[in-house]
Amino acid sequence: MDVVVCLKRVPDTEIRVRFADGATMIEPEGIKYIVSPYDEFALEAALRTAEASGEGRVTVMTLGDESSQETLRTALAVGADAAVLLHGSVTMDGLATAKALAAELKTRDEPLVLFGVKAGDDDQQQVGPMVATLLNRPCATNVTSFEVRERVVRCDRDVEGGTEVVELDLPAVVTLTKGDFELRYASLRGIMAAKRKPLEAKDADRPEGRLTVARLAHPPESAEGRIIGDGPEAVPELVRLLRDEAKVL
Amino acid sequence: MADVLAITERRGGKIRPGAHEVIAAAASVAVGLGGATHALVLGGIGVGDEVSHLGSFGADLVRVGEDAALETVVPETYAVVIAEAVHSHGYAAVLFAATALGKDLAPRVAALLDVPLASDVTRAEVEDGRLFCERPIYGGKVIARIEFEASPAVLSLRPNAFGTNGSQAGGRVERLVVAVPEAVRSRVVGFRAAESGSVDVSEASVIVSGGRGMKSAENWNVLEDLRDALGPQTALGASRAVVDAGWRPHGEQVGQTGKTVSPTLYFAIGISGAIQHLAGMRTSKIIVAINKDPDAPIFAIADYGIVGDAFEILPALTAQIEQLRSES
Lengths: 249, 328
Hints:
Chain A has helices at residues 37-53, 68-78, 94-105, 127-135, 188-194, 235-245, and strands spanning 3-6, 9-11, 19-20, 25-26, 33-35, 58-64, 82-87, 112-116, 139-149, 152-159, 162-169, 172-176, 199-203, 211-217, 227-230.
């Protein structure tokens, strides 16, 4: 079965953030970028689905600027067969992103579209189900594993207090979170092969964003790393502080 | 219209406690916008009888949609019903809880209404008649202040970040006529309950989290003892290293690729404090760190730290908290 995986290029989790443009964006200079960690789960799930069906093709797709080519090439090196780069800006407005992706997906006929449950940078957790709604397809979010049986995909969703099992009729959209499987990484051979795999670039059909960042700020310094003592002798003081100062006991 | 709608959640035949928080936040936004606070409750036949008390959480009007097709929460169906309720009344803002369900429903509702969504918001306020919200990005390293350029504003609120208002106001209850979609292509076919305690880590007001410093899965009993002493609203959490090692289930993982939590009190036991862990818990109100290594990064964000062996410190802590509880 053919699968599309929508990916996002995001700053590495470990970066130090500096602000630019009147503190409405982060300074992009000197930042290392990665494939959003949740999208790696989606890619792995897609590769497994294609392999299980014997003749599936995995296409990776992203909305972004020219630098997102690198993200797509990484996914091709890991094992995807083809890539689509939609040229356009990505902002906090997930619906604008979803519209650009949905416009492209409408022209394609893969029965399964996968996303990471959220992007590692703005943590919005919304583009997947928005795309599903725009395409009028069923969707399951926060899925740890799924299985395709004929025209149905059966998903395990991680919800409060347990696992919910949901069945979707294909075509469908699924967003992935961490599951009980190992990720594969790019081999040297994969990296070489990726250079010859098809990467199609085109302009995105993306509307203006309507969710604006008025200002970015560092979180308030909550604590100054207050070490109150060593070993069990410090316990009475901790309990006193929790009760009388923090008032949380 | 300046009215604000709070979407409430039910589970196991009951309104979830987090609904009070969403209604309280909706009420505060509604005051700023000069509108009324409405709460929406959807469910199967008989749900109307459960909710007569809901007005006392601060909603002026509780709108109840009752239909056999709403007995099980199928987001595909719920999203259509919610979007229609929002559209027909013309709300200024719609608030969800950023629970597993809320994070699934809100994007669908926003897409159906053709408006953007601000997810996992930690603060919402009205200034000069305009709604702003704040939400953490880049794993909590940055707080973004967001403005909406479309109406209604749709938000999902991080659980425990807003609190309740203790309102005793009594609202009216009104039946909402719902038209459920017929061709539904998704079905909830089962649920497997997690083995660990009753409160999920993402909803708990107190969390006891263990890391690699706990040395083995068998040692979790000392964390369970502390959890039990702290009361029923306490959940266990875990670092990624511990989940990757198979000591604890993924459902307990806090941090990036796990859950984002915002409890009143967070205990980090034997957790060094990698950035990906901090991403999931740094908005906790009070953070207590217990670690052998005085240079562990977790101490830099902890309100209170104790350096030392968790296996010596925890039994003493548990005993003192038990004593405190028995006195009160």
